[in-house]
Design brief:
- This protein is 39% helix and 18% strand.
- It is of the alpha/beta class and 170 residues long.
- The chain has one domain: Leucine Aminopeptidase, subunit E, domain 1 (3-Layer(aba) Sandwich), CATH 3.40.220.
- Strands 1-6-5-2-4-3 form a 6-stranded mixed beta sheet, with helices on both faces.
- Helix 4 packs across helix 5.
- The radius of gyration is 14 Å and the shape is globular.
- It starts with a strand and ends with a helix.
- It binds adenosine-5'-diphosphate (ADP).
- The site of adenosine-5'-diphosphate has 21 residues, from helix 1.
Length: 170
């Protein structure tokens, strides 16, 4: 299944996939990092749709249209803030990936692109986050044959190294 997992070094807002995933916050009303970049490119209609959603719990996900993005949809998920690892962070981060893939199945999405959720401002260690991401993606690819490709966006070399290491482990 790993042949369907592709590492890409780019800005996620340039990708013409069925859905890009946004590392959002609980309000879903925009923020910094990848969230800010996505809202800037998508335009104000994205914020308007997000305002109708009533926020999102950590570990869950919500889907919107992509508006001015090349991607058809945005799946907004809220990763955990790293607090040392004993506050349910691994389960919550795995929940993000599961919630995104549940929406992918419901909306019959075939191509998805993920940023490294929680590893920016939220401080999750990159190697541990990459291991969880790869584990959940492998499970989802095995369970949903309609998924054609999952892109993992490496916005910096450390993120790429973490994914490469995680992919070497079975
Ligand atoms: P979080 O609050 O979940 O940590 P961040 O947006 O701060 O979210 O960071 C998540 C990841 O997204 C980090 O690896 C960061 O380098 C990356 N990132 C930031 N901007 C972009 C972008 N435009 N495209 C793809 N990845 C990005």
């Amino acid at each position: 299944m790993d042949e369907k997992i592709v590492l890409v070094d780019t800005d996620i807002t340039t990708l013409a996939v069925d859905a890009i995933v946004n590392a959002a916050n609980n309000s879903l009303l925009g923020g910094g990092g990848v969230d800010g970049a996505i809202h800037r490119v998508a335009g104000p209609q994205l914020l308007a749709e997000c305002q109708t959603l009533g926020g999102c719990p950590t570990g869950a996900a919500r889907i919107t249209k992509g508006y001015n993005l090349p991607a058809r949809h945005v799946i907004h998920t809220v990763g955990p803030v790293w607090q040392g690892g004993n506050h349910g962070e691994p389960q919550l981060l795995a929940g993000c990936y599961r919630s995104c893939f549940a929406l992918a199945r419901k909306y019959r999405l075939r191509t998805l692109a993920f940023p490294a959720i929680s590893t920016g401002v939220y401080g999750y260690p990159k190697e541990e986050a990459a291991r969880i991401a790869v584990h959940e993606i492998r499970q989802a690819l095995a369970a949903n044959p309609e998924l054609a490709e999952v892109l993992l966006v490496c916005f910096n070399p450390a993120t790429r190294a973490a994914y490469e290491q995680a992919l070497r482990q079975s």
